[in-house]
Amino acid sequence: MYKNLSEINQIWVLNKRDRDRLLALEMDYWRRSNGTSRLEHVRNEQIRQDMKVDKTIIDIIETKRLLWYGHLERMEETRWPQKIWKWTLQRKRKRGRPTRTWFQEIQDAMTTRDLRQGD
Fold it and tell me: How far is 90 from 88, CA to CA, in rounded Å?
């Protein structure tokens, strides 16, 4: 389960709704694996403890994002992923709140883990 979800989601920009849905999907998986029903009112922390799981799917996705970002930063300027990373689209921005970017997600993950640009 982790491999499929984390490979797909490491390039997505997750909003709160997406994060909540991924966590709900993960807990549904762990509940079924543990053999407990939601009607039993067992807390998520207890199920994670019973299944010996210490990281959530969001933690795994953030770790994979940081690994890819580190690889991207070390990459040569002539490679396509690096060219696409540096490229900016020249267009007029839509109305409303600015969309959250992948780099903002990386910066947030780095600040929560006390990492700096060169680490």
Answer: 6
